């Protein structure tokens, strides 16, 4: 599922891809290519590329001299790392106890219905990625969620859908912190 | 920097603060920010700029960490010289400006502050949280002015590692992450271990849903945690510490990173700490979203960059931990309690709490309660005091049904046991645990089998998959609970569920699996009639479950198919 740049803007994207690789190299050097720093390296990779595809995982495994299965194993073990590209907006709905008791389940159900997707996936038109998180630690705001990294507290299904629709589609700043 | 310099810096800063006419502390933690604290800050900054040359230097605005009553944010604390402090709740930009103008003109403001005997504050005993809401967590000088690193200086120059361990043992401090293992004993074990290297690890992987004590401590007073780790490092003979922060807490990680850098720059961490021969480095490790990493052995494998899967104990981390070396691993809140113990003495700390559980505990009080937020109470405070005095009871005239403690490893405490003192043993006797300190109040609209199902789903999701009882057992238990909540369960299922709970409890590898059945067993014990109502009467007393499925065997045609199925195989 390597995501390759498409036709005309190919050269542009190519150089940005190289720039990102340079950032990754910098992180690798900073940790002196220590195998124990795999998680930090993957954090950097996820931050720069938005997701971890096969190409990046292979690259990391070669650089750190780790078997690809090892790198893949770590990348898939942790919820934070995602192997799929994210949508234009990322909505993380907290499903911690306090939020659950106050009706976070209804919010997820409503978003799933409105945007025709399942929690943990991205909508077909790539407009939204919906993630359910295990407590984001803002229980006094229950039910709370983050939309592109911004915290929204005391939500209802209606207010959430409205907030997602109102957020301009141009912002492609994907919140890495919260998935 | 040596201890004399440290004291000098602290005194200088204290003097500067005393000379100020008015100090405004604005809670700048996530809940208050989302309630509009940033707008208040901008308005106050604007007001500051309008002031004349004479007044401006006498006023200071401090963006602090969490003050506690998060549901009442944004909070503004007003400290004037010679006058008692005032706290204003639900502050708007206009209101804040009015309050400050009135304070500057020495008039009484139109807005009413919270009463000074407001039970939310009056019933608390602040030790771990004593600096929260009184310092800017990003300014080390504020922490130093409130005594940060002075305990470390005292320990390094006046005490031997053995004395430090003894002091902690005598204080009766127990692990605040939930286990409740005596901290002093653990320190002593690591101190006595013979090894070339040793490590200190702070566990900030606070995964329990509904708990955010560690996040708040790390965000609001990071130096307190670092100081505690350094004292532990000295006591155990470690020169390297790791602080493992949950990936979901980017702000806490950023603040800690800054705090470590600031402390190193001033010689409070790093080599030759405070002019002694003690070296201590702290590195930050950011988790990547795995609940099981809160388990100590899993956390250590995660620090080493691997899949966060637990390993059997013994050997305990104190014997063989990170990279095979003895490792001391404590919760963030435990480390936050260390500095005050060294400062005030073990007897002082042991004076709080109950016979077996000393000191105080921080709880994240939330759910159906008027004043939700972060509280710190003496061990042994009754649940009733916490929920009704501090929490202000349930909103909208709701009836208390249960309080959930300990997250997915704990249980629900019913209304009959509201007068139970909250300490390690009493909660365990009730079939729950202290846990890391999440306390979620539920009213009559919460369905207990549904809550149990929620936690089981959580455990199933977060099971690392290493051992069979946890990996398969959680799925099967969830299936049974799903059947109970959708109406397709039968009497036998309840028995199967209970048997399975005991099996998983006894045979799992780590704490996650061993405690995963707790919410089920505990709710089965106290709310069995609710389970029975679901199964026998096809009714959900709380009105949560839809119960739209029918037991398979109750459909005649299915029953027939089943018999055929059985005969064929």
Written description of the protein model:
- The complex is a heterodimer of chains A (179) and B (569).
- Chain A has seven helices and four strands, in the order ααααβααβββα.
- Chain A is of the alpha+beta class and 179 residues long.
- Chain A has two domains: 9-77, no CATH class; 89-166, Glutaredoxin (3-Layer(aba) Sandwich), CATH 3.40.30.
- In chain A, helix 3 (54-63) crosses helix 4 (68-77).
- With 569 residues, chain B is of the alpha/beta class.
- Chain B is built from 24 helices and 13 strands.
- In chain B, helix 7 packs parallel to helix 11 (222-236).
- Chain B is globular and about 90 Å long.
- Chain B starts with a helix and ends with a helix.
Features:
heterodimer; A: 179 residues; alpha+beta; Glutaredoxin; 2 domains; 7 helices; elongated; disordered N terminus; disordered C terminus; B: 569 residues; Rossmann fold; Ubiquitin-like (UB roll); 24 helices
Quick structural gist:
The complex is a heterodimer of chains A (179) and B (569). Chain A is an alpha+beta fold and 179 residues long.
CATH topology of the largest domain in chain A: the name is Glutaredoxin
Number of contiguous helices of chain A: 7
- CATH 4th-level superfamily of the largest domain in chain B: NADH-ubiquinone oxidoreductase 51kDa subunit
First-to-last CA distance of chain A: 21 Å
* Tally of individual domains of chain B: 4
Number of domains of chain A: 2
Taking Cα atoms only, what radius of gyration of chain A do you get, to the nearest Å?
A: 18 Å
Shape of chain B: globular
Please describe the topology of this protein.
The complex is a heterodimer of chains A (179) and B (569).
Chain A lengths: L9 H21 L7 H12 L4 H10 L4 H10 L11 E6 L2 H5 L2 H12 L12 E6 L11 E3 L2 E3 L4 H10 L13
Parallel strand pairs in A: 1-2
Antiparallel strand pairs in A: 1-3, 3-4
Helix pairs in contact in A: 1-2, 3-4, 6-7
Chain B lengths: L2 H17 L2 E6 L2 H5 L2 H14 L8 E6 L11 E5 L5 E3 L4 H12 L14 H4 L17 H6 L4 H9 L2 H11 L11 H10 L6 E6 L8 H8 L1 H15 L3 E6 L4 H16 L15 E6 L9 H8 L23 E5 H13 L1 H5 L9 E8 L5 E6 L4 H8 L9 E6 L5 E4 L9 H6 L8 E6 L4 H15 L5 H19 L4 H17 L3 H5 L2 H9 L1 H9 L19 H13 L1
Parallel strand pairs in B: 1-2, 5-6, 5-8, 6-7, 9-13
Antiparallel strand pairs in B: 1-3, 3-4, 9-10, 11-12, 11-13
Helix pairs in contact in B: 3-4, 7-11, 7-14, 8-9, 8-11, 10-11, 10-12, 11-14, 18-19, 18-22, 19-20, 22-23
